[in-house]
Amino acid sequence: MQQLRTPDGESRRPGSEGFFLPDFCAAPAVFFAVLLAELIVLLHVLALGPLASFSWQSLATGSVFVLWNTLLSIALLCRLRSRLAHLGALPATASCLAVVAVVVGLSSVIVYVSFPLLMAPQDTLLPWLLRNELVALVLAAITLRYAYLQQRVVLQQRSELQLRLDALQARIRPHFLFNTLNSIASLIAIQPERAEQAVEDVAELFRAALKEEGRDSTLDDECHLCALYLDLEALRLGERLQVQWQVDDALRSQRVPALLLQPLVENAVYHGIAQRPEGGTVRIAASAEGEQLCITVENPLALGPSVASGSGQRMALDNIRQRLDARFGSRGSLTADRHGDSFRARLCLPITTEVPA
Length: 357
Description:
The protein is 58% helix and 15% strand.
């Protein structure tokens, strides 16, 4: 089976990337589950009465029952994880809760029937079963929710790391850096002021790509970085590169994740304009649609076979989708497809402040 590599080099099977359920086949996850179960039993016994009347027997019997259910549940989830990884978050959560409910229900019935001496005199089967089921499902739901939130944090951190690596690679990629330096060198003698400005633009792009503090920017700052990048590419492409901006001024102060727009513009130039002998126009538009800020980057399709069918463009788009999902969930989206003779990337995310009428 094909293996996927995460930014930290970890190998993952397809379909399990970003899956929130911990790997219960691994010792750390088993240890954490056992420790949590034992702490819950201890808390329950402590709540039964004064500390002076602490019941070691209750602790022992409760530990055996809870640990048996815990270990059996995580053993089943360990076996089922690869199948659950192909489901969505809600179906996977429901499946996990169903496994816990079945294990706890069967165990409760077996204990009630086979070990009646361990039961309190007032306990009957149905209340005993319902109580155990409710407690187990609540604890399992809390644990799964914690795992889901932790997975989203890890996914966002991983995506941000990959973003910085991709941005750095884009800045130092030979086709961009060397061509820009050659263009600057050719300008030094005839247009020294333009050459100096180009050097400052390159430095500002490097600074933005390597900046670690703060992961938010404004739409205006993002447009500024894109304009710097386009100006540098214009040194090489000349009149072949045309740009049209349609950005609502009322939206320029909107907060957006940093370096979200520039990769889309770079794809439009590298996979579209640069592949056409006659060049073309990159159209960048931003407008408010309801409670969402929608940004569109459109470029003419390359003529014939081109690098647009390679993996570089897909990797950039997938990275942006992961960042949007980690940050905004279903409220953020990125679609990219052909529209006639053009390729259009459409990015939507929630508006964070009120837009003036």
